[in-house]
Amino acid sequence: MSTNVADGALAPENGGTLPDLSYAQIFAKFLRFGFLAWGGPIAQIAMIRRELVDEEHWVSSARFNRILAVYQVLPGPEAHELCVFFGTLPKGKLGGLLAGLGFMMPGFVLMFALSWLYLSTGIMQTAAATAAFLGVQPAVIALIVRAVHRIGGHILLDRWLWGIAGVAGLAALVGTPFWLTLPIAGLVYMFAARHQRVMAGLLMAVLVGVGLYFAWVTFGSTVGGDAVSAQAIANQKPSLLELFISGLKAGLLTFGGAYTVIPFLRADAVGNGWMTDAQFLDGLALSGILPAPLIIFSTFIGYFGGGPLGAIVMTIGIFLPAFSFSLFFHDQLERLVDSEKIKTFLEGISAAVVGLIAATTLELGQKTLVNVPGVVIPLAIFAVALALLYVFKAKTTILWVVLAAAGTGLVLFG
Predict the structure, then answer these.
(1) pLDDT single digits (tens) 227-283
(2) Three-class SS of residue 339?
């Protein structure tokens, strides 16, 4: 064992002993983590902590907690950002890059293959596949509902945050753009946390007013809404640059966990006519059965928008912030997050994102009830899936729930 590290490592502050690993060994180590990344971010972070902190002592437990706190506040998949950061410790920035690539590679390759299978082989034209995905769609809604509950439990810690989430969710339902909602929400909580409640209240009123304006625009002319929808469906496929920007935007806005990316990717993918809501839910279902951060379903969306190159470009875009934060800006971001103003601003944004996910879940649920035959059957699949997700905590619970829902679809709709 050695404490000699490449430039950029932080051994004196880590309170641990770093291993002497080659670049190939770093990639292989985190590639193994990628193959074992079942069960979502909590299980992934626990795995990284158990091996690198408890068993190998790369950093002290206190140092790990501080690092994790930084990435929980920032956007992006925390487990992936942790892998990139840990890779920098023994071998600097190149080590971090290899660690991040290793961790994401299994999920990317599998999702790329499934996207090709879904789109290029005609498998979705078969009655069996159609029936299976019809069964899966209500279960995916249950996955999102469980995620909203879990994320909200960590973020919505006082009445102001609950209020922000509620207003942001209602605003999203009437078509308010997130680029207006999120900064106002951040300012509301920044002032509320400083006990400047008059200013916070005024900004909350502004947020409500913006929502009312878009409600009037959205529901004031149904003809205009139909025209926008028809135009979106008629749009040509996006360019590679548009796919990259869509992924990059989503990667910069995933506050609170990977599920928070759902409303942003749906706004582009479904809103611009790249895919339908049913296909969007199919992509979420496929990502749920893979050992990877859930945002890997961006690969599926990119494949829809631009084929194999589109899948690669969109994946690069959505993971780029996670790599950049850890490789280039970790120290600065750690100091920045210590700022109470910045911290509360980001907490307000996170609360608003919870509201956006909740609104998106309602919209997707409504589309699922329309798409899946009957009403009782999809509601029953949803209820059973949700109960199983709450009762069973194993890493592979999501995998088994999705597979069971697919089997149910085959039996009922095949």
Answers:
(1) 344 444 445 689 999 999 999 999 998 876 677 888 999 989 998 889 999 899 998
(2) coil
What is the number of domains present in the chain? Answer: 2
Strand, coil or helix: what is 371? helix
Q: Which domain holds residue 88?
A: 11-103
At what angle are helices 178-193 and 159-173 packed, to 10 degrees? 170
Residues 87 and 116 in one domain: no
Q: Judging by beta carbons within 10 Å of its beta carbon (0-12, 13-18, 19+), is residue 4 exposed, middle or buried?
A: exposed
The structure tokens listed for 194 are 């400083």
Q: What are the two backbone dihedrals, phi and then psi, of residue 59, each rounded to the nearest 5 degrees? A: -140, 165
Asked whether residue 178 falls in the same domain as residue 276, the answer is yes
* 129: amino acid identity, one letter: A
Is the pLDDT confidence value at 147 over 70? yes
**Which pLDDT does position 229 carry in this prediction?**
45
Characterize 167-197 residue by residue with b for buried, 16 or more Cβ atoms within 10 angstroms of its Cβ, and e for exposed.
bbbbbbbbebebebbbebbbbbbbbbbeeee
Residue 393 is assigned to a structural domain of this protein = no
* Angle CA 251–91–318, to nearest 5: 10
Cβ(386)–Cβ(276) below 8 Å:
no
CB 353 within 8 A of CB 256: yes
Q: Are 289 and 402 in contact (CB under 8 A)?
A: yes
**Per residue in 252-288, is it b (16+ CB within 10 Å) or e — as a string?**
bbbbbbbbbbbbbbbbbbbebbbbebbbbbbbbbbbb
Q: Is residue 129 part of a domain?
A: no
pLDDT at 5: 40
Q: In residues, how long is the chain? A: 414
Q: Are residues 169 and 77 both part of a single domain?
A: no
72 and 98 both lie in a single domain: yes
- The pTM for the full model equals 0.81
Q: Is residue 387 assigned to a domain?
A: no
pLDDT digits (tens, 9 = 90+) for 339-394: 788 888 988 998 998 999 999 999 999 989 988 988 899 999 999 999 999 998 87
**Residues 215, 303 within the same domain:** yes
For residue 376, being part of any structural domain is answered with no
* Lowest mean pLDDT across 307-316, 331-340, 347-356: 331-340
Please give the Cα distance from 234 to 94 (Å, whole number).
Answer: 44
Q: At residue 69, what is the residue type?
A: A
Same domain, 70 and 116: no
